[in-house]
Amino acid sequence: MSDTAAPAYVFDATEANFQSEVIDASFQQPILVDLWATWCGPCKTLGPILEKVIASFNGAVRLAKVDVDKEQALAAAFGVRSIPTVVLLRDGQAVDGFNGALPEGALREFLLRHVQPAEAAAEAAPAPASGREETPAQTIARLQQEIAAAPDQADLKLDLALAQMQAGDAAAAQAELDALPANLANDDRAHRLRSQLDFARSLKDAPAAGELRARIERDGNDHEARDLLGVRLLIDGEAAAALEQFLHVLKADRNWHDGQARKRLVAAFNMLDDAELVGSYRRRMSSLLF
Predict the structure, then answer these.
(1) DSSP secondary structure code for residue 125 in this structure
(2) pTM across the whole model
(3) 204 three-state secondary structure
(4) HSE (side-chain half, CA atoms, 13 Å) at 18
(5) How many CA atoms are closer than 13 Å to the CA of 203, on its beta-carbon side?
(6) Which of 209, 267, 256 is nearest to 233 (CA)?
(7) Are 24 and 286 contacting, i.e. CB atoms less than 8 angstroms apart?
(8) Which in 145, 206, 246, 249 has the greatest CB count within 10 A?
């Protein structure tokens, strides 16, 4: 491996650690899998470039290197026909990839479609309020004034969308989110906001929580009632209770509504800030899926 990349960002993946270090870890951050071999010329060209670019993302994405000669089962699982083959995993699934060696600029563009460098995310984070905490309405008014004064600062528009969602104005938040430039559309906070909006939309015309609980008491296999109750609980801030409902459906029927329980769990993980809670339920979900 190149000295350019910190060891924490680049590691060797084997059949023994693939589940924990790649599949499970991809629920916390994207994992780029590089399938290579010692005899492969293009692999030798691409490897140092991959490590350099991964290092520049400061931990926002990690690189798992798979020696296809030593890990033939993993190569077969990825359907490798030529090397280097590079695959990006997120939430346990392959979301993008390419074959062959890319130049540094093209590789950086590839990653930026899916993840922002950690330092960029930190810069985009809103500064903590000083003194008395703002109400959502005050935050919206302040951000609108800042945007009027600096219309080219797109990160302020993401802040505004988040504030509008906090204030309960999902339509306005969606409009701001849709208008974001591509680099911010892939920001972690934008992903979290999309999850919140998806949950809010799923409750349109949904029964009240009391009615949903009554349906579940009558029929413990009423997956629709459990699913909607989970959404209501999540929006009301009862995260653990919500995740239990989604997990119950996943355990009973992982294929219900095209795997909706898994999708609900992944979306919930993306919008929750409690790392300990999310980690616990990610492990429980993985134990049911893999």
Answers:
(1) S
(2) 0.48
(3) coil
(4) 19
(5) 18
(6) 209
(7) yes
(8) 246
pLDDT at 282 over 60: yes
Tell me: the pLDDT tens digits for 76-87? Answer: 999 998 999 999
Q: How far apart are CA 228 and CA 209, in angstroms?
A: 8
Query: How far is it, in rounded angstroms, from Cα 244 to Cα 246?
Result: 6
Q: Return the residue matching tokens 């204030």.
A: 167
- What six digits make up the tokens of 56? 């520049």
Over the stretch 138-179, which tens digit does the pLDDT of each residue have? 888 888 888 888 888 878 888 888 888 877 778 888 888 888
pLDDT of residue 120: 42
- Beta carbons within 10 angstroms of residue 67's beta carbon: 18
Strands (E), 170-276: none
Residues ≥6 apart with Cβ < 8 Å to 207: 215, 225, 228
Q: What is the dihedral of CA 75, 81, 85, 90, to 10 degrees?
A: -60
Q: What is the pLDDT of residues 46-59, one digit of tens each?
A: 998 898 888 888 88
Q: pLDDT tier at 284 (50, 70, 90 boundaries)?
A: very high
For the annotated catalytic residues, the residue numbers are: 40, 43
Q: What pLDDT score does 125 carry?
A: 42
Terminal alpha carbon distance of the chain: 30
| Residue 176 token pair | 């701001």
Cα 185 versus chain centre, distance: 12
Statement: residue 93 has pLDDT above 90: no
SS3 assignment for 54-115: HHHCCCCCEEEEEECCCCHHHHHHCCCCCCCEEEEEECCEEEEEEECCCCHHHHHHHHHCCC
Phi/psi of residue 117, nearest 5 degrees: -55, 145
Rounded CA gap, 66 and 76, in Å?
12
Extract the tokens encoding 207. 């029964």
Query: What 3-state DSSP class applies to 34?
Result: strand
